[in-house]
Amino acid sequence: MSEFQEKSRVVAVEQLADTFYRLTLSAPQIASSSQPGQFVMAACGPYLDPLLRRPFSVHRRCDTHSIQLLFRVVGRGTELLAAKRPGDVLHLIGPLGRGFDIDDADRVCLVGGGIGIAPLLFLAEELRLSQRTCTVLLGSRTAGELHQLTVEFNALGCEVEVATDDGSAGYHGLVADLLGPCLTGVKRCYACGPTPMMARTAQLCLAGRIPCQVSLEAHMACGLGACLGCTVHGTADRYLHICRQGPVLNAEEVAWNR
Amino acid sequence: MEQMNTAPDMSVSLGPLVLTNPVMTASGTFGYAEEFVSLVPLHELGGVVVKGISVAPRAGNPPPRVVETPCGMLNAIGLENVGVDRFISEKMPFLRTCECRVIVNILGDFIEEYAELAARLTDIPGVDGLEINISCPNVKKGGVAFGTVPEMAAAVTRAVRESTHLPVIVKLSPNVTDIVTMAKVVEDNGAHAISLINTLIGMAIDVRTRRPKLGNIIGGLSGPAIKPVALRMVWQVASAVRVPVIGIGGIGTAEDAVEFLLAGATAVQVGTANFYNPSAVCEILTGIQKYLLEQGEQSVQSIIGTLRLEG
Ligand SMILES: Cc1cc2nc3c(=O)[nH]c(=O)nc-3n(C[C@H](O)[C@H](O)[C@H](O)COP(=O)(O)OP(=O)(O)OC[C@H]3O[C@@H](n4cnc5c(N)ncnc54)[C@H](O)[C@@H]3O)c2cc1C
Ligand SMILES: Cc1cc2nc3c(=O)[nH]c(=O)nc-3n(C[C@H](O)[C@H](O)[C@H](O)COP(=O)(O)O)c2cc1C
Ligand code: FES
């Protein structure tokens, strides 16, 4: 595993929806070595408060020089990120963790809920490079959060279906409800989003004997495997450390009922 | 510039343990060093103190285990570690290649476990010293931390000294009424050096859910927020004992480190800063050198304990 500490420059800031932002960052070392599903630790503030770096999935690799992060503003760190302007510096460490496995499955399904959609665009880009058939199911609170992303998944040649909590676009309800009928013929499934959504996806895939990978979250101090803070409950009474053993895990490694 | 001739002497001694420079990494914040290999030039460190090791592996506490607080963080890792056997077979081979001092932090539920660990680690090539974490609960005494009762701290220190010829550092808990009494007791019982402070016990609550933010309810506070407390304790202890003192707590910059040296610490350990700035240890090292040059000092030893109180 090799990661870099890189002083990235903000190239562009986009506001995709009310609280959804996207940063394009010039970070050549990280851009040239990232795999879909990997993440970076970003130092959001210049001083000691907020103290810790924040983890963000690599949303997209634009070229060998730059990456994008897609984030939702939820607290002080993400507020500071949303206030970044082109030319600003953002210190990153990455790429970190274990990403999605891409095997020879020719037909795959990607399920993303809310900000969990972030790592899936990078994954879809990689999958489409080798012509896999990708069905993408996207869920969120409301239509606005999905608009731009839907356009981008479509542009890659993915088949996209959406679900919204308020019914403002696509299916009125949970994205996991769309999954059942889509699984026919699917050889592999990838999911990232709220835990109940991933648990439901894992359950359906298990029943259909379809390999499924999920990307999990945990509070992190280091992202490097040193603090042992980023634990989730694994099966067989084991704790898993998300920053090194994940964030992408095989669905059957996770104790969903804990 | 005649840098070569004027470069200050950075070496320090912790009793029998000589370090090329006074900047070490603190236990539990630098893993087993391999985690930082692509980010930190490990050979430049004065020493690495590895994650606390127990006789048997430990799984640790349920999540969430870390939470950020103003200028600090709380952790309740629960002393998760691979156990001494796997430490020796899986972690020591890498540590032997680091070209820096390796100090093994040890912990136990019973005095006998500390003694056993000391004996096991004594003849392992590459282990340069032991640091006793006495902030752990003594299971035989109803879970009272070894580090909060002078007699228990004394007994652990003695047991470890009798089980090894390695240099022994005793790491004090700040969660006591009188830190100087604890320091004197471990000095009298054979500690070659004293390190302080371990984390301060704290707590955080999510008011929306009315639940504690840590799975373990309470945890240890670390980071810049604790520096003034650590500095005060280091100054009090360094003024009261003869053995070398290692300053720990919220150190993130060279200025922080120099404060501890002036207060009487012979060396420092950098903890939480490794998380938010993995370059901190190297920046601190070069910053201390720069400070010495600016102050016209020939060596780091010449500034230790030179806090001016009069005039
Ligand atoms: C591997 C991984 C990848 C992630 N990728 C993305 C992404 O692509 N886009 C995105 O918007 N978010 C992502 N997150 C979640 C993101 O890290 C948090 O939303 C962010 O840390 C919140 O910081 P804050 O200061 O705004 O919030 P605060 O609530 O003020 O943060 C306080 C502390 O809690 C931690 N924290 C809060 N929420 C989370 C969370 N959900 N997961 C982990 N730690 C949290 C923060 O890191 C910080 O230490 C990811 C999390 C992980 C673990
Ligand atoms: C995540 C974490 C794990 C720690 N684990 C240990 C440990 O295993 N043994 C120990 O003696 N101290 C442990 N500590 C305490 C640190 O070594 C140090 O004493 C403390 O964090 C104060 O220094 P700091 O403010 O620079 O972090 C740990 C601290 C943190 C933050
Ligand atoms: S975040 Fe520190 S070990 Fe995973």
- Helix content range of the residues of chain A, please? 10-25%
Kindly report the average pLDDT value of chain B.
Answer: 95
| Helix/strand structural class of chain A | alpha/beta
Question: What would you call the quaternary organization?
Answer: heterodimer
Main sheet properties of chain A:
7 strands, antiparallel
What is the N-to-C order of secondary-structure elements of chain B (H for helix, E for strand)? Answer: HEEEEEEHEHEEEHEHEEEEEHEHEHH
Strand order of the largest sheet of chain B: 3-4-7-8-11-12-17-18
Number of helices of chain B: 9
CATH superfamily of the largest domain in chain A: Nucleotide-binding domain of ferredoxin-NADP reductase (FNR) module
Q: Determine the N-to-C terminus distance of chain B.
A: 35 Å
Number of domains of chain A: 2
* Global geometry of chain A: globular
Task: List the keywords.
heterodimer; A: 258 residues; alpha/beta; Elongation Factor Tu (Ef-tu), domain 3; Rossmann fold; 2 domains; 16 strands; B: 311 residues; TIM Barrel; eight-stranded parallel β-barrel; 9 helices; globular; binds flavin-adenine dinucleotide; binds flavin mononucleotide
Q: How would you characterize the overall build of this protein?
A:
The complex is a heterodimer of chains A (258) and B (311). Chain A is of the alpha/beta class. Chain A has two domains: 4-96, Translation factors (Elongation Factor Tu (Ef-tu), domain 3, Beta Barrel), CATH 2.40.30.10; 107-215, Rossmann fold, CATH 3.40.50.80. Helix content of chain A is 21%, strand content 33%. Chain A has a seven-stranded antiparallel β-sheet. Chain A has a seven-stranded mixed β-sheet with strand order 11-10-9-8-12-13-16, sandwiched between helices. In chain A, strands 14-15 form a two-stranded antiparallel sheet. By secondary structure, chain B is an alpha/beta fold. Chain B has a single domain, classed as TIM Barrel (Alpha-Beta Barrel), CATH 3.20.20. Helix content of chain B is 31%, strand content 22%. In chain B, the strands form five sheets. Chain B has an eight-stranded parallel barrel with strand order 3-4-7-8-11-12-17-18, surrounded by seven helices. In chain B, helix 3 (111-122) packs parallel to helix 4 (150-163) and helix 5 packs across helix 6 (227-240). The two termini of chain B are 35 Å apart. In chain B, 56% of the residues are buried. The mean pLDDT of chain B is 95.
